[in-house]
Amino acid sequence: MNLRKKMFLGFMAFIVAPLFVLGTITYLLSQSIIQQNYAEQSEFTLKAVGRNITYVLKEANYFSQASMQREDIQRMLGAKDGVDAVTLTEYDRLLQRTFLSYTPAYSVTLYDFERQSFSQGKIGYRPLSFAELAKLPVFGEVMALNGVPRWIGPHEFENWTGNKPLFTMIRVINDMYTLDNRGILLQQFQFSELNRIFNYFGTSHSNGVRFMIVNQDGLIMVDNKDKLSGQTLSSHIDGSIHLGGEYESGKMKFDGVESIVSVHHLNLDEFGKMNWSVVSVTPWAYLSGRSMQVIQWIGAITILSLLSALLFNMLFVGHVIRFILYIVNSMKKVEIGDLGIRVEANSKDETSALARGFNSLVERISTLLEDVKREQERKNKAELMLMQAQIKPHFLFNTLESINALAAQNEGRKVSRMVQRLGTILRVSFYHKEEIPLSMEIDHVRNYLEIQKYRFEDLFEYEIDVPPALFSTPILKLTLQPLLENSIQHGFEGMESSAGDGDSERQKGFLWIAAEETEDAVVLWVQDNGAGIPDDVLLRLHGTPGSRSSGGSAEAGAPMPEERVGLGIPNVADRLRIHYGSRYGMMICSRPGFGTVIRCTIPKRTTG
Fold first, then answer.
1. Domain named HAMP: which ranges (predicted)?
2. pTM tops 0.85
3. Residue 259: helix, strand or coil by DSSP?
């Protein structure tokens, strides 16, 4: 007999049977008591919650009323000819001092009947234009109420007020002396106090209770568990409940769980036109465990169950416990690095399967550690290649020779410019961080290309098209320079010697460096009109693990000296993959005689 059957039979004989007999008696006695007591307690709690919600809305109403009756606010709405920038700044400060000084206030917008509007709010708010306001289904009600606020709960009109947990109040602003209509106030509130109210009564009343605020259509505007907001109450209950009465409670299934659903209508008529109710949902299983009489019975049941469990432990569980301790001791040895440990099990039950699983897991960990070591070796190799690619001795030597030639010709201005560009290149190469802003990388590339243009006069031209908005994007240093160096040394090779063939446009190389922003990444482009990459070399680059679909990796081996590609391209691809992960990397498209296009994809971030 396997372990599962042994455990099942023992459990049924020594625990389930005694608990069933005693539990049945307890259940019959407690059902009516629990439901009766909870109905009274729930009514008291919901009314207390309702009073607190009423106080929160009353306070917001009073604050809004006092703010819009200020003389400076009334004068703001009296402007007829528009406002200049200075006055508008003063109005913004005024809105901040008045309406937004109230902690729950999220945003405020004032409209006059000349269709002017003044808005202020916290980060992320979206002001409504007067045209959008006029399209609200409740706009006619607001005008008819003539100063009495019209409240809109969260999710009631998401197309206009958004889907954030915000309460929106719209009211006509009357002149404080003549009571004439001066404009309209739209103010949004983020009542974090509601969460404190729900949490307070939820803790004191029942940890399993769910509180919701719903409108007359059953739309759940607020859910203290932040899961059902925006949904309808009817889609979660299997019965019907009246939302307009003062109090109603019933036992029904809520999301498939037997629960007590209670409704209390909020009396908010004096604060505006609202027809809201507060709903509480408490699982019946949780309520049954809170009866004092049940607890007493559970105490007696527990004593009997413990005696049965003790006998059960002596007869059946002992073997399992010993095996578990054996597994634990083996796991401790694995934790200190002994990956050669293996668990032996001679029984024919599930413990043998557990032993095999443990052994398989240890073997898998050992394999993964080896993979990590190999990956680290690859990273070290790529970093070594980075050091080799930073500033090559021959480039530095040739640049210094060029500077020397300029100095001999008394070209002091050009010498100064060349030294400055070389110093910038060296500064980036020796920068202590691995990532630099894209602006620094572009500056490095520009200086490098200017030096190469002097060395290879009339060999190529270049263009850099990078939006300033992307300058703060971090990028691995020396990502673009090896790609450009490859184009100059290999792609444009032979162009000077072929000059004079009559095709003057084709004899001059062109480099194009660009960047663009996608939804979650920044894409860098390097394109030349050079000789292109031979198909066999490109195919070998496509098969390396340095990029997702194509590209190169130093692990694939450097191409032969006569080939179009040097160490730079595989090095860049390997570094991008190791540093940013498999989602990012490099892709190469090339055709012999038609040039090469390289795309590098990096994450969209900003430097700190």
1. 318-370
2. no
3. strand
Neighbours of 322 (CB within 10 A): 11
Query: What is the distance of C-alpha 249 from the center of its chain?
Result: 40
What is the number of other CB atoms lying within 10 angstroms of the CB of residue 565?
Answer: 23
Q: Is the pLDDT of residue 326 over 50?
A: yes
* E-state strands within 434-537: 435-437, 460-465, 474-476, 509-517, 521-528
215-272 per-position pLDDT tens digit? 988 999 999 888 898 899 989 998 888 887 788 888 889 988 888 899 998 887 777 6
The tokens for 537 are 């070399």
User: Is residue 398 a contact partner of residue 451, using CB atoms and an 8 Å limit?
Assistant: no
- Of 430, 406, 438, 420, nearest to 607 by C-alpha is 438
Q: What is the DSSP string of 151-178?
A: EE-TTSSHHHH-SSS-EEEEEEEEPTTT
β-bridge mates for residue 524, sequence order = 515, 600
- Exposed, middle or buried, 570 (CB in 10 Å: 0-12/13-18/19+)? buried
What is d(CA 279, CA 53) in angstroms, rounded to the nearest whole number?
Answer: 13
Structure tokens at 481: 């320079």
CA 582 to chain CA mean position, Å: 20
More confident of the two residues 337 and 127: 127
Q: How far apart are CA 172 and CA 505, in angstroms?
A: 71
Rounded Cα gap, residues 211 and 228, in angstroms: 11
Tokens of 7: 């455990």
Domains in the chain with CATH codes: 1-311 (no CATH), 339-388 (no CATH), 393-495+508-542+567-603 (3.30.565.10)
**Residue 583 near residue 548, CB atoms below 8 Å:** yes
CA–CA separation, 195 vs 185, rounded Å?
Answer: 26
Asked if residue 107 lies in contact with residue 120, where contact means CB atoms within 8 angstroms, the answer is yes
Cα 108 from Cα 68, distance rounded (Å): 11
Which pLDDT tens digit goes with each residue over 340-392?
Answer: 888 887 777 777 888 888 888 888 888 888 888 888 777 766 665 665 555 56
Q: Work out the number of other CB atoms within 10 angstroms of the CB of residue 594.
A: 12
601 three-class SS:
strand
Say if CB 566 and CB 489 are below 8 A apart.
yes
Task: Retrieve residue 592's tokens.
Answer: 């012999």
- Asked whether the CA dihedral 278, 284, 289, 292 is positive or negative, the reply is positive
CA-CA distance, 575 to 586, in Å (whole number)? 10
Distances (CA, A) of 79 to 64, 115, 133, 180: 21, 11, 20, 15
* The residue type at 270: E
The residue type at 485: E
DSSP characters for 290-341?
T-HHHHHHHHHHHHHHHHHHHHHIIIIIHHHHHHHHHHHHHHHHHHTT-TT-
Strands (E), 331-388: none
CA angle 21, 27, 33 (to 5 degrees): 155
Q: What does residue 347 show for φ and ψ, rounded to 5 degrees?
A: -80, 170
Three-class SS state of 209: coil
> In angstroms, how far is the first alpha carbon of the chain from the final one?
64
